[in-house]
Amino acid sequence: MKQHRHFEEELEKLKQCLVAMAGLAEAQVARAVESLMERDVAKAEAVIEGDSEIDELEMSVDNQAVQLLALQQPMARDLRFITMAMKIGNDLERVGDHAVNIAQNVSYIVEAPPLPQLPELEEMAGLATDMLNDALDAFVRADSGLAREIGRRDDRVDELHENVFRILLTHMMEDPRKIGAGIDTILISRNLERIADLATNVAEDVVFMVEGQNIKHHGYKEAP
Amino acid sequence: MTETGMEDRRVAGSIITPPGEPVLETEDLWVRYGDKPAVQEITLSIPRNRVVAFIGPSGCGKSTLLRCFNRMNDLVPGARVTGTILHGGENLYGPDVDPVDVRRRIGMVFQKPNPFPKSIYDNVAFGAKINGFRGDMSELVERSLRQAALWEEVKDRLDASAFSLSGGQQQRLCVARALAIEPEIILMDEPTSALDPIATQRIEELIFGLKEDYSVVIVTHNMQQAARISDYTAFLYMGELIEYGNTDTMFTNPREDRTEAYITGRFG
């Protein structure tokens, strides 16, 4: 029984590492969105500096997972948890990178004359942030019901991204001086759209982790 | 539904019937040692040309169940078997069935290599000789040793004593001996538990290849081994069949909580 408890402790450690990563990724996205809305360069710089911590946690998650696979030969739910931990860790690291990309674009945008207000971009930022937060809640609580629901929101994000692209294209065609800020804003929109995609990936991984059912690429079926 | 009500507690679909032709089918099989049931109400189907693994904690009845398949329990004092085991439409426990004939069709390999104190050649030829084999004996010995992946290692010393072989080689010799009587089914009771990892790997590769010509049922304590070599896995606990399914599903996403708890090492 002793060896056993040790394994459970290791699993808990891996989970805590992912929870820490999730908290950081959420905070980075939130701060990047704030820097965009408030045109705040200091906040954007803080995002860029904050990324290395997520990178280190990703490596730690990978190391722990490989060790557990090699030494414990986990089965069933443990195997699903460990393999999904590696994928979720990777996705969170990418989320962190997208937050950095947004922050970098913000620091270019503030130097250019402001574009007209884009409520679509604000809605996207809200949706993507909520999706990410909910996916991570679903992971922490092993709630596959919540996880299944997250992917359904991704269509709206994609639609908003297309709208933002179209609107900004029109502005840029009308006034070439807006091209710089326009492209940066399109890139921000693209990064938000990717964050929503990654939140969807995490949610799908949570469903597999909890139920052993792979729902990727098949739409969102109800649990049996 | 039954004395124990077990059936009702299981999740739907936790006991499958493998597709294809069954080579053995048990129906409400019980084994009692004295009054105590060691195996109860087992109904399962063993498919032809596949490997089926029985797993479960010590004392769960997996070896007892395996031994029913070639009537080895007849040799255990006080053991009583009820229910049916169909093989080719015939009940192995029918009144007119000769257990020796059953064991000819359903061979067995045991935990510890148990070659006869004879030459390598004679070990393989022994069963065939007793059965009045009239064909080319040397050819049969070579074919059996080849199937057991031992031929290359022993072809130049067939007259040497079987005891001059290593443990892993002795176990493959026992497999060759079982194959020489050309059974349909091979039962293996923890065939690698006395072997080192390299010898174990060779036996596993051998089992994997055997299913082209035979049906294999293996009892193992090693769950990774069951996961690696079997097509279907049955989990037994306290004499009952808890879950029987595709091996890949059993080890990634079992249906029964008790299976999950056992294979993740949370009990047993």
Q: In brief, what are we looking at here?
A:
The complex is a heterodimer of chains A (224) and B (268). By secondary structure, chain A is mainly alpha-helical. Chain A is built from 7 helices and no strands.
* Known CATH architecture of chain A: Up-down Bundle
Order of helices and strands of chain A: HHHHHHH
CATH topology of chain A: Methane Monooxygenase Hydroxylase, Chain G, domain 1
| Uncertain spans of chain A | none
> Please, what is the oligomeric state?
heterodimer
* Approximate helicity band of chain B: 25-40%
Taking all Cα atoms into account, the compactness measure Rg of chain A is 19 Å
Task: Provide the descriptors you would attach to this structure in a database record.
heterodimer, A: about 220 residues, mainly alpha, Methane Monooxygenase Hydroxylase, Chain G, domain 1, 7 helices, elongated, B: about 270 residues, alpha/beta, Rossmann fold, six-stranded mixed beta sheet, five-stranded antiparallel beta sheet, 11 helices, disordered N terminus
Overview of the structural elements:
The complex is a heterodimer of chains A (224) and B (268). Chain A has 224 residues and is mainly alpha-helical. Chain A has a single domain, classed as Up-down Bundle (Methane Monooxygenase Hydroxylase, Chain G, domain 1). Chain A contains seven helices and no strands. Chain A is elongated. In chain A, 41% of the residues are buried. With 268 residues, chain B is α/β, with parallel strands linked by helices. Chain B has one domain: P-loop containing nucleotide triphosphate hydrolases (Rossmann fold), CATH 3.40.50. Helix content of chain B is 34%, strand content 24%. In chain B, the strands form two sheets. Chain B has a six-stranded mixed sheet, sandwiched between helices. In chain B, strands 1, 2, 3, 5 and 6 form a five-stranded antiparallel sheet that branches. In chain B, helix 4 (120-130) packs across helix 5 and helix 4 (120-130) packs parallel to helix 7. Chain B is globular. The chains are: A mainly alpha (224), B alpha/beta (268). At the A-B interface, helix 3 of A face helix 9 and helix 11 of B.
